[in-house]
């Protein structure tokens, strides 16, 4: 028989035997949990013996099976590699919530694959090289995806503990401004600050700040003239106008004069986005067009942006 055919026969035989071994290894694992580890040892001995037989029948398929002295070593390596791959696959199936473990036939068929891959690594160069590349790619990809899933779960749990719905985390873009801080303690809030080159220090507190908040709710007519509440102050009787359907402009003046001094004017734009309201507010030291842009350019924050904000405030969750 041609060498390449003999290699394929060996790999097919190892795969088939590995599929049979899979059920036995699962049973041995369960029995070990109930205090019967000797069953696992018996399965291991049986598995190695079966592989020695497969290596004997297809002796010329691999350098390690060609000589009797190394055939046992080949069988042990294939069994160990297959068992390790089987365990890793079961872990990945559980961690990634894949459907493979729910079907016994699929488990049996795929269970022989790690044993065949181990045998392919020990056969000839034209099976070893591609197998090694595939194994490295699959393992690397699985580790990356599993870690990302763990991180996503950890960050979602962090937000849940903080009582912040993920859908309320937004960011925005305004020319000449950059995010200065993000707060997700109770109500999600993004603060932007001017970064204009050579700009003098503001004459009064908040002159170069825009605050963006997102909340669930509607905006009935009664809310349009309700008290205007911002991070910089409050205005009791604001004026309100609907610039276009779903976008309102509110302006007002703070009562009295704060100690830090200001023109005391406040402005807010309210944008309806489905079931959410985006509120961008500032003092009248910020141009109305910029506050309007902050509302109109608001978008849901990406996972990377959310994680960066949480890391900056609280550090990575669970670490």
From TrEMBL:
TM region positions: 7-32, 38-60, 72-92, 112-140
Keywords in alphabetical order: Membrane, Transmembrane, Transmembrane helix
Keyword Transmembrane helix tagged: yes
Domain of life: Bacteria
UniProt protein name: Uncharacterized protein
């Amino acid at each position: 028989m041609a060498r390449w055919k003999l290699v394929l026969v060996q790999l097919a035989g190892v795969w088939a035997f590995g599929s049979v071994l899979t059920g036995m290894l699962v049973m041995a694992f369960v029995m070990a949990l109930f205090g019967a580890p000797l069953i696992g040892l018996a399965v291991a001995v049986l598995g190695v013996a079966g592989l020695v037989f497969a290596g004997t029948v297809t002796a010329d398929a691999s350098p390690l099976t060609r000589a009797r002295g190394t055939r046992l070593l080949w069988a042990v390596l294939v069994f160990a590699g297959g068992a390790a791959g089987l365990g890793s696959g079961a872990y990945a199936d559980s961690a990634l919530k894949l459907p493979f473990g729910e079907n016994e036939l699929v488990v049996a068929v795929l269970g022989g694959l790690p044993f065949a891959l181990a045998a392919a690594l020990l056969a000839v160069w034209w099976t070893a090289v591609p197998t090694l590349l595939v194994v490295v790619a699959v393992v690397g990809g699985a580790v990356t995806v599993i870690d990302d899933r763990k991180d996503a779960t950890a960050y979602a749990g962090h937000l849940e503990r903080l009582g912040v719905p993920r859908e309320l985390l937004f960011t925005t873009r305004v020319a000449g401004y950059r995010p200065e801080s993000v707060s997700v303690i109770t109500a999600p809030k993004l603060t932007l600050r001017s970064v204009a080159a050579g700009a003098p220090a503001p004459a009064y507190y908040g002159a170069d700040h825009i605050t963006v908040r997102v909340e669930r709710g509607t905006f009935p007519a009664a809310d349009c003239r309700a008290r205007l509440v911002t991070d910089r102050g409050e205005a009791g009787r604001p004026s309100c106008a609907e610039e276009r359907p779903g976008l309102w402009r509110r302006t007002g003046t703070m009562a009295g004069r704060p100690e830090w001094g200001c023109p005391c004017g406040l402005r807010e734009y309210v944008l309806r986005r489905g079931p959410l309201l985006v509120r961008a507010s500032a003092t009248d030291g910020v141009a109305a067009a910029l506050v309007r842009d902050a509302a109109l350019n608001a978008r849901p924050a990406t996972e990377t942006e959310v994680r960066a904000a949480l890391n900056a405030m609280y550090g990575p969750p669970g670490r």
